[in-house]
Structures are given as C-alpha cells and as structure tokens.
Amino acid sequence: MRLFGTAGIRGTLWEKVTPELAMRMGMAVGSYVDGDTIAVARDGRTSSVMLQSAIISGLLSAGKEVLDLGLIPTPALAWATREHADGGVMITASHNPPTDNGIKVFNGDGTEFYVEQERELEELYFSGNFRKARWDEIKTVKHLNVIRDYIGAVLDFVDHETNLKVLYDGANGAGSVLAPYLLREMGVKVFSINAHVDGHFPGRKPEPRYENIAYLGKLVEELGVDLAIAQDGDADRIAVFDERGNYLNEDTLIALFAKLYVEEHGGGTVVVSIDTGSRIDYVVEKAGGRVVRIPLGQPHDGIKRYKAIFAAEPWKLVHPKFGSWIDSFVTMGLLIKMIDEEGKPLSEIVRENIPDFYLTKKNVPCPDRLKGEVMGRVKEILGERFENETKELLTISGVRFNLTDGSWVLVRPSGTEPKIRVVVEAPSEKRRDELFEFAYGVVSKAVEAVKKEKN
C-alpha cells in the first residue's frame, strides 16, 4: 500500500504527512464509514492540532458529525469510539521522533482498521470519489471529555486497590494526562517523571526501548519503588522495570500475561507478532494453550481470525476481554494487581514463571526505496547459511529462520521508519552473539551494496 504501513499512516511532517493529506483522508474516512458520528483525538505533538483540524474539516465535508476528544492517549480514543461513535481517527506518530506524525483509523468497536479496510480506504483516497454533503447536511463538532469515564472503565475491569509504589515515566506524551490519575485511583503511591505533555519530547526519545529509558533502573533503586512503568508518545506501548531496577524483556512481559490468560481460560490461542521469542511458546504450551505468529501491526486481525484470548507485540498488549485494541493502561493495572495478589516482588514472579533466553535487537538504516532489493539479497544469503539447520521458515513481515537448536533470526523492514530491523534469540549468550554478528553484518553489507549500485 502507498500510505498505510504496519501502524496506520506515519511519516515526516511535510514530506509525507501534510494538512492536505489529513483533510483528504478525513474526506475518505467520512465517505467510507457507515454511521453518522466519528470520534477524533490527537497526541501532544506540535503538529497534531493542525492535522486534527484538517481531518475534522474532511469529515464534516462528508456529512459526518465529529466528536472532538482533544488530547488523549490512543487507547482512550479506541475505548471512546466503541462507547460513543461509529468510527474513530487518532492523530499520532506513536513512538516516532517529534518531526513525524500520522493517522490511525478505528472501527466502531474500537478495533484499528483491518488490512483489507486500509486497502479499500486507500483506494478511495486516491480515487477522489468522496461524498460531498449539501450545505444543509453539514453537521457540527461536539467536544467531549472522556478521560474520567475511561479511567472508571479501566478501574472496573482491573477491580483492585493497592498500596504499591510505582515510578511512572510518561515520555512527555499523551499518557501523562491520564496514567498518574489512574494509578492514584488504584491507591498507588506515584512518582512521576516526564509527565507533562510536550511535543518536543524534551525528557527522552518517545520510544520506550531500553537504551532510551535505562536511567529508570537507577531511579527504581534510589526511590525504593515496586516497579517502574514507561510509555511512548501516544501511550499504547508500555515498558517495565522490576523492583531491583532490572528491565523486563518485552517477551517476558508478554509471556506473563499469556500465561495468565491461558491458565484462566484452561487453554486457548495466543497470537503474537513475528518478532517475539521462545519464552512465550514455552509458558503457553506448558499451560495448555497454543501460540500463532502473525505479521506486525495486525493483532486485531489475529484476534478475529483465531478467536484469540490474548494478543501482543513487543511493548503492545491487547486484552480482548476489555477491548480489541492495544491498551497500556489495562496492562499496567493488571500487572500491579498480579504483583499485589502474588504477594511477591516482580523479579521473583518472573524468575519462578518465565525461562531465560538471550535476545538482541538492532536497526540498520535503509532508505524505504531500497528495502525490497535489500531484503531479497538478505533472504538468499541467510537461506544459504542456515540451509542445514532451519526448522521452519516464516516470511511474514520479513523473513524469520527458526533453527533446530531453538534459536531464531528475524530480519524485517520497518513499516514506519527507514530502517531494517535485525532480531536474534538463542538459548545461550554465545550462540546469540554469533548469530547476531553474522546476520547484522549481512544486512549492513547488503544495504551498502544496493546503495552503491543505485548511485
């Protein structure tokens, strides 16, 4: 597709995401979605008010009534869409740098648009066959504050009070308007950092990967808190440190919840993205469930297709009993409940339930126009290297080699940034390092080779 990637439309302001694109997309969404009312919200980026205004103009031109929800996290927009509207639009670039922005579109049940819907919407966008409301059909913009109601819904679902101490890092993002208040309503003693909204993201980079939030480990020890929670720019992603200041691997967090849901259901299917690791399979299969891997950006598609009881990507967890969207607020509430009810520190819960595997991730910069040719070369070279030890080859969202010793190597083009991602996991650090050095070298050399040929 020309506009939609793995997480809606996303890119650099003026180069890809413009007011013109936003207004035209508003016209397309207004023409595509059945029903009268569309909810619209934004994150705290400097360009989000401008783009939201353009989206709203497009929706009004198609005869839709607009609910302006203002600056709220993406999970709150999804919930409010289900409760109050026939569709939803979020202006956000999620964890991307402040130079970027984007658009996500939601169905009336709060799910992100499925792949086929994005394809149809894109065709409509380029065709220009929009509905044009007559002057007397143009409706109004209503302003609605849903933060308190959304907090109440999460509290009712989690159904737990506690006196744990939590360090919260909001990344100067949209979660800052909601998370501290939710935690306090649970009885948590909250220590906040980067918890005022600022579209320049002065506190740290908005993506909550370890290298951007490593300082939280030391703060955990200094403050004596039970855990630390970090979000991204629009607060759908969540990262966690335990009470010792140790970062929880993203797969470890997924595995904890996968185990919880499979045990609760006495089995069931868990869907996870192609870049997740073996510890998830271990705990799910041991608990009597099964794991299905799906392309990145499609947890909602996976839930629908496989009737999954839980779905996740790194940092992004979906709790279908609450709603079929990524929701870090439900995740943090349930994690705190888990720690409290177990009566054990988080590090001990992890040690008792989740096995150790060794994983490394790193990106190789690569222009979008070269990704296809680079991936073709990488697949061929890795295929030759792993020919005699490949147990399974997966070609969704890139190429993944599952090897006979339990290791796996994934190379995939980013759907949101000019990068190719390399992920390696193995049962030992030595094996992981050997595989990663080889795979990362192959990708780096392929990118440079293709660049030279194209120049």
TrEMBL record:
Biological process per Gene Ontology, one example term: carbohydrate metabolic process
Residues in Alpha-D-phosphohexomutase alpha/beta/alpha domain copies: 2-130, 149-245, 250-355
Record's keyword annotation contains Ubl conjugation: no
Molecular functions per Gene Ontology: magnesium ion binding; phosphoglucosamine mutase activity; phosphomannomutase activity
UniProt xrefs under CDD domains: PGM_like1
Family the UniProt entry places it in: Belongs to the phosphohexose mutase family.
Protein name listed in UniProt: Phosphoglucosamine mutase
Protein source organism: Thermococcus siculi
